[in-house]
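Follow-up to my earlier ticket, as requested here are the two runs.
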Amino acid sequence: MASQDVLDSKIHGRKLTIGVSLSYFIFSLVINAAGNVLTVVTSQKIHPTFLGSAYWTAASAGVNKAIFNGNSSMLGWVFFVIGVVVAILNVFLQGHFNARKFFGNIAFMVPFSALISYFANIFSSIMPDSQSIGMTIFYVILNFFGVFLIAIAISIYQRVNLVLHPADDLMQILRFKYFKGSAAKAMWASYIPPTILAIIAIIIYPDFSNYGLGTVSAFLFQGAITGWGDKAIFPNLKHQGV
């Protein structure tokens, strides 16, 4: 599967206008936040829980559960702080300090964290707990759809390369610097930090409600879907240089 997602590691020069870049970026930012929250809320609405959230989302939600008892209003702040830590990690992996990329990572987290809190409050209030097999199946589909949305969003704003979520910048650094353009291999390698976070969160508060089928599907397929999205979603959008 990974071999199908190996892309030419040469990054194209920037050819998009700022207006077009912003349009792609805003669209991908919204669907990324919505997809992340869908995986969290659908997992919480099924009892007993077996779905889980997307990989980074599960780790962040686990930290939120361990520190703030799962307060949905604090989820955005947890995403923000973890994002800052990952942005610092990216500097070391890149091998030099790029101010535009670093502060771009931080800038990304501001609207993204706000959108996470916004969608978390809305979806939590409008989506009832599952009371039937039909509702459970619907939530399972929504959970997997959330993973799909995240992967497609990553594909779009990585190609736009305006500013990136720190975790996705981590994946892109690994992808083109260490894994010869393979989205799947880079995604798996980028999952090492959230795995560590998840283990720490579980030790602090032994709760497994954020981990399940959705987490596994994200681990196995999110990188591959991102690679597929590069070719199938807005195929004329090429990776832009900096």
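Run two:
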Amino acid sequence: MGNREALLAGARTCLLEKGFDRTSVRDIATTAGVSMAAIGYHFGSRENLLFQALFSLLDEWGDLAGRALVPADAPDLGPEQAYERMWDELLAQARAHPKLWLTSVELFMQAQRQPDLLPQLADGMRQGRSGMAAILASVPEAEVPDRTVRTLGTVQLALMSGVVMQALADPDNAPTGADVVAGLRALAKILG
């Protein structure tokens, strides 16, 4: 592993352990086992390195979420049971990797402070909505109509973010897949 890769790995570790604001150049260099000057040489600044590490962690987070969202191989499940199971798997991933999930929140906070990050964050959100809509509609992503992405994808992404945050904030009272399905059913009843 070269210095660049070691720094990226070190920055990822520091982000998970300390967060963006508390991670120093010294922390990253020490974790990576390279000189502090290497950060400037390879990334230009601590912030650029941490942003690349954040997006790398977000990619990992997206992979985990995607695996949880793809229905488990259980053809005997009906749509409601498959959706409930998907939520249970997603919440299990959040419990297994809480720091990874919380790092995604850190990116949202940093994007508010660093406007240059907003276009990348917005692009990631568009991809997330599109991917979720495709998974739920069981069609290739290229075939999902824009309206479905804006409705189904948006609502699913909002639900996922909110439910996972609740589960991480209050693990003893974390919602289950059955709770999410029951809540959606109650909302549908209110809406008629």
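The only thing I checked on run two: The chain has two domains: 1-44, 54-191. Let me know what else you need.
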